[in-house]
């Protein structure tokens, strides 16, 4: 266990990038800027951690927890599932977390968070809010039972899933969030159906919604303002909440580290990763696609889909993936006028 | 106050008096009555300042307790058998994180074949998880051990399992002396955690530790248990001073002073053993017994001191190390390192088979005559075993063993012997 102080003694963040969308909005009035654009942001996941270059999960976690910190006057406790985020942020005796943080096991983050929330309730400290977080492996697979239990009890926990579509920490193995055709270490790009089989996997945001909990949303690291809006909204609600954030993994996806935001944006704009919000079983909002792109624009940037393009284009399978995107666009109304999203 | 109540209810009284702040529950026979009684108390308002959480599995039950304890709350849960195995990963984790959770184990066999009755296979499977394990002889001791367990756990920052025999204790109505709230408050101070999740003082708990420090972390877990070897008798004495009865401690001896044969056992069977000891003493046999209360930490010195002078030691175990024999016997033999005496392992009471006075008398007489095998299965039905072995010799596709044996035995649902 290591220890460090957070709160008001923290230094202002130094921005090294200029002209990026990520930390942009600095021409806006201060109260209209994103949390990330604020040099006094908490930097809840501090620099110096050991994530790979271009790690989408590291970005997603910082965006999410910083927004939650701002929304709660820095009264956040985080519970982390085993996975990349846990490993790269806390090799003993170092920690990148500027929030109270606990890691127990791979599959129990939601239940541990329920326990923290119960302790806070019994001690009358309900101003302190609890966030559980994990990757798709810890959320959609091994931690699914505890997640569903936390949802159905409507425990006062926000669960954030950083979805990079495989078990990256153990070396890129398939999860139930791995998309069709994707090559992983356990879905090799060989045989009659190369990569991950079609018509498998599960949609955990919709399953979360089916629990009838007060808030469910999807978000992307490519749309920081939308992500922050959803985190802020979630922290204003009591009960079980779920936010599923799409976070590219350059290592596992075979994309360029510099392309992380681009790849994430193409997932949204192709319709493969729809951004929506829901409450009590109903979808209540969607973030419209601004510039629709074909799925091949998204797939082509990633080595995990390379077998779809060489030695010759696999038009049948690319077409099947396009059909998935088209269905998402129709189902969620992603091309309709803005109606509640913040994109 | 004296009450005639079920063992589970007695434990629920002890837990309620210990002012738990978070209780998480998942039903499994035979511990269920404990959490039912506690749920009732929270719902009725009789137990205040406590959250009672109905979780979806034992894995979640202990995980919720981990979260609650890490946030500084006194946390309790209970389980048995398959439930304990289902939470196994969290059992090790709670100990590794040094969280002083108290958990009751209503001891029950592990399947397959499915069996809801008593033996010690469940808690024994977790003996090396880093928890302190205390075994109750009676319902009164089960009640008392829980009050001691919270203090022990919190002084050491180490989780404690209080093990009580399923049905034999959990479901038996017996007279227990239930202390008052003021008495328990005087013995058990409020929980002051070594570290807690708090935004005012952010700490990182559960970081990854590599080869450079892992051995030291594990050594300190061992060291904590060695400290418990002195703390457990201290708490036993403090409890005795305040409540006027002896409960807990490392071991308890019964007529061992000049004994040539000493029986070692854990839990409720000690009552029967002591009766047989009395009966044999009356006929001039120099026999005594030792009840191990603290199985983890294992009381090597205390056992050596009370067993070292004997001619033979019979370890009566309600569990089986398949392929080896005894689990408790290993520790007992280690405690007697260098001392030449005869040691016998007796596997008894598996899956709820009754351990009768008649069987024990015969067994101890055989031991006295040194006519025991090194490992004996008490009351093993040799005919059934021989028949099944023969059947397996004759054909390849012999089907499932348990079902074949049941077919041969016929309907015996009401017989536990």
Task: Explain what this protein looks like in three dimensions.
Chain A has one domain: Thiamin diphosphate (ThDP)-binding fold, Pyr/PP domains (Rossmann fold), CATH 3.40.50.970. In chain A, helix 1 crosses helix 7 and helix 3 packs parallel to helix 5. With 343 residues, chain A is an alpha/beta fold. The radius of gyration of chain A is 19 Å and the shape is globular. The N terminus and C terminus of chain A are likely disordered. Chain A contains 11 helices and 9 strands. Chain B has 2 domains: 236 residues, Rossmann fold (3-Layer(aba) Sandwich); 127 residues, Rossmann fold (3-Layer(aba) Sandwich), CATH 3.40.50.920. The mean pLDDT of chain B is 96. Chain B has 15 helices and 16 strands. With 417 residues, chain B is an alpha/beta fold. In chain B, the strands form 3 sheets. In chain B, strands 3-2-4-5-7-6-13 form a 7-stranded mixed beta sheet, with helices on both faces. At the A-B interface, strand 1, strand 2, strand 3, helix 3 and helix 5 of A face strand 3, helix 3, helix 5 and strand 9 of B.
């Amino acid at each position: 266990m290591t220890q460090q102080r957070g709160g008001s003694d923290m230094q202002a963040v130094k921005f090294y990038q200029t002209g990026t969308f990520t930390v942009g909005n600095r021409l806006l009035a201060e109260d209209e800027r994103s949390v990330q654009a604020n040099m006094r942001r908490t930097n809840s996941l501090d620099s110096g951690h050991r994530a790979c270059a271009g790690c989408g999960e590291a970005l997603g976690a910082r965006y999410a927890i910083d927004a939650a910190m701002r929304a709660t006057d820095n009264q956040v406790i985080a519970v982390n599932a085993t996975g990349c985020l846990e490993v790269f942020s806390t090799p003993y005796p170092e920690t990148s977390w500027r929030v109270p943080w606990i890691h127990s096991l791979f599959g129990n983050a939601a239940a541990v968070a329920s326990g923290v929330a119960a302790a806070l309730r019994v001690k009358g400290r309900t101003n302190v809010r609890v966030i559980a977080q994990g990757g798709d492996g810890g959320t959609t697979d091994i931690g699914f039972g505890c997640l569903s239990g936390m949802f159905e009890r409507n425990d006062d926990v926000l669960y954030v899933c950083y979805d990079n579509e495989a078990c990256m920490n153990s070396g890129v193995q398939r999860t139930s969030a791995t998309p069709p055709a994707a090559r992983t270490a356990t879905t090799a790009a060989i045989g009659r159906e190369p990569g991950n089989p079609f018509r498998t996997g599960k949609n955990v945001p919709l399953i979360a919604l089916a629990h009838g909990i007060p808030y469910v949303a999807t978000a992307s690291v490519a749309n920081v303002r939308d992500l922050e809006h959803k985190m802020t909204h979630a922290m204003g609600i009591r009960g079980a909440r779920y936010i599923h954030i799409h976070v590219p993994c350059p290592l596992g996806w075979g994309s360029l580290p510099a392309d992380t935001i681009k790849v994430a944006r193409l997932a949204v704009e192709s319709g493969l990763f729809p951004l929506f919000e829901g409450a009590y079983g109903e979808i209540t909002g969607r973030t419209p696609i601004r510039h629709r792109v074909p799925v091949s624009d998204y797939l082509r940037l990633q080595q995990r889909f390379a077998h779809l393009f060489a030695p010759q284009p696999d038009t049948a399978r690319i077409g099947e993936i396009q059909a998935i995107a088209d269905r998402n666009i129709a189902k969620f109304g992603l091309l309709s006028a803005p109606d509640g999203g913040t994109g | 106050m004296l009450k005639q109540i079920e063992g589970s209810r007695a434990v629920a009284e002890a837990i309620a008096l210990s002012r738990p702040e978070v209780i998480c529950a998942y039903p499994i026979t035979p511990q269920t009555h404990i959490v039912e009684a506690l749920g009732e108390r929270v719902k009725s308002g009789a137990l205040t300042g406590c959250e009672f959480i109905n979780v979806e599995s034992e894995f979640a039950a202990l995980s919720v307790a981990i979260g609650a304890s890490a946030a500084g709350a006194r946390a309790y849960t209970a389980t048995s058998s398959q439930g304990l195995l289902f939470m196994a990963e969290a059992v090790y984790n709670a100990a590794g994180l040094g969280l002083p959770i108290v958990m009751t184990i209503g001891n029950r066999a592990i399947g397959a074949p499915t069996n809801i009755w008593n033996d010690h296979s469940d808690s024994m499977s977790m003996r090396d998880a880093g928890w302190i394990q205390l075994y109750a002889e009676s319902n009164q001791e089960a009640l008392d051990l829980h009050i001691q367990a919270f203090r022990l756990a919190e002084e050491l920052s180490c989780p404690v399992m209080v093990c009580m025999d399923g049905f034999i204790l959990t479901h038996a109505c017996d007279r227990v002396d239930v202390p008052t709230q003021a008495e328990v408050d005087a013995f058990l101070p409020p929980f002051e955690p070594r570290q807690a999740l708090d935004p005012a003082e952010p700490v990182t708990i559960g970081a990854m530790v590599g080869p450079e420090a892992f051995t030291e972390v594990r050594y300190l877990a061992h060291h904590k248990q060695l400290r418990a070897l002195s703390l457990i008798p201290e708490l036993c004495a403090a409890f005795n001073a305040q409540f006027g009865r002896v409960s807990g401690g490392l071991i308890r001896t019964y007529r061992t002073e000049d004994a040539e044969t000493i029986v070692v056992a854990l839990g409720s069977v000690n009552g029967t053993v002591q009766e047989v000891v009395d009966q044999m003493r009356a006929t001039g046999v120099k026999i005594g017994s030792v009840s191990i209360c603290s199985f983890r930490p294992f009381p090597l010195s205390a056992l050596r001191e009370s067993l070292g002078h004997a001619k033979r030691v019979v370890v009566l175990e309600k569990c089986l190390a398949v392929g080896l024999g005894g689990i408790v016997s290993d520790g007992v033999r280690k405690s007697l390192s260098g001392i030449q005496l005869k040691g016998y392992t007796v596997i008894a009471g598996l899956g709820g088979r009754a351990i009768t006075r008649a069987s024990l008398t015969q067994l101890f007489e055989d031991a006295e005559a040194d006519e025991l095998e090194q490992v004996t299965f008490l009351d093993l039905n040799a005919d059934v075993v021989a028949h099944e072995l023969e059947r397996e010799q004759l054909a390849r596709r012999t089907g499932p063993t348990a079902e074949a044996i049941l077919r041969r035995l016929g309907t015996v649902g009401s017989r536990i012997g």
